[in-house]
Request: fold
Amino acid sequence: MDILYILSYVLMGAGVAFMLFGVVGLFKYNRFFPRILVASKIDTVGVLTLIAGVALRHGFSFFTGKLLLIVIVMLVLNPLVAHILARSAYLSGFEMETSEEEEEQD
Amino acid sequence: MRIVLWIMLGLMALYLIPVIKGPSRWDRLLGMNLISTKVIVIIILFASLYNTAYFLDFAIIYALSGFIGTIFIALFLAQRKRREGEK
Reply:
């Protein structure tokens, strides 16, 4: 039983570490598009590792079944929202001019 | 387990900064989306702390409605600006 216990703590620690990286990524990039890529991707991975850690503590039960449902929802919806956000920013011509000017200057 | 809860609350406070300071509307939306993910994680941790499975139903419903809300706000923001561009 101890191994599962330790493993769940390790997984939850990894999930929290991923989320901290996500925060670093969010504040490091000043332009929008790299920021949304890093933040949403790392955040999803962090959540999934954390959920895996929590699921280990409960073994096979209704709890883990519902957690699986949440994992599926997160896997489908998180990238979807990030894509729609980036698309709506792109369609509105957000931060388009600056990147072209920088390319001309190089 | 409780430490993870406190870290999540700290992260939510951290994500508030781009929501307030964020240069553009999309940064704010991104911050809100990340905060709603954190809320889901907090609900899951509470559920596992108190060993009650029905908390997770709240997390599922909150996840679905939160994401759908963000999606439609993003779509709304995109359409408004594009129309100005066409004039």
